[in-house]
Amino acid sequence: MTRTVPIPRVPKDYEALPPFALILLSALLVFWCMAPLGELLLALGQVAYARRQHARSPLNDEEAELLCALAKAGGQQIQMHKATQQFGSLLNDHAIARAATGLSSRGLIAHDRFLRAEVTLSRRGRREGKMLQKQFAAALAAEMKVGDRVSNNGLEMIVVSVHRSILDSGAYKFGEPVLCEHYGQDGRPHQMLVPQHHLDRLN
């Protein structure tokens, strides 16, 4: 016959200790289990915030030029290389692929994971593309041209040479310095390279 050993009672002064210990251990166990979940939620929040900030960040030269070309081409399933050629862009293949990835991450174009050359502009992409077209046209019109009469701090000159810079990616770069000519007090022509933002067009 099995003999039952009685469990001694907890003294009255310590009766609250076992429930308190149980609650404390339970809280520690829950905290230990929830800590990884909290870290995961924090990481997901940081990723979402980074994506939101990226979506709102300004487009780089490649992305702006590609979006402008796609907006001008219009329609559905736009062929990127054909659109850039028709736009007069010199973006190379790598630049187009990088720009398409950037535009897709911002939700401006629908670009499948197989990186096919055809893309579709989103509603926001069409809207921003139209705005870029106007900005591109304005920047092109503002560029100094050979023969323009300009002034730099009161010194009148004539633009004799314009160098249109192309980035390594093939993207256009506006506002590059132009070569200007003026006649000095000796009556001889003098030439100087002047940044366009320092010049005022006189004609």
Automatic annotation (TrEMBL):
Keywords: Membrane, Transmembrane, Transmembrane helix
Chain segments annotated as transmembrane: 20-44
Keyword Transmembrane helix tagged: yes
Protein name: Uncharacterized protein
Organism: Cupriavidus pampae
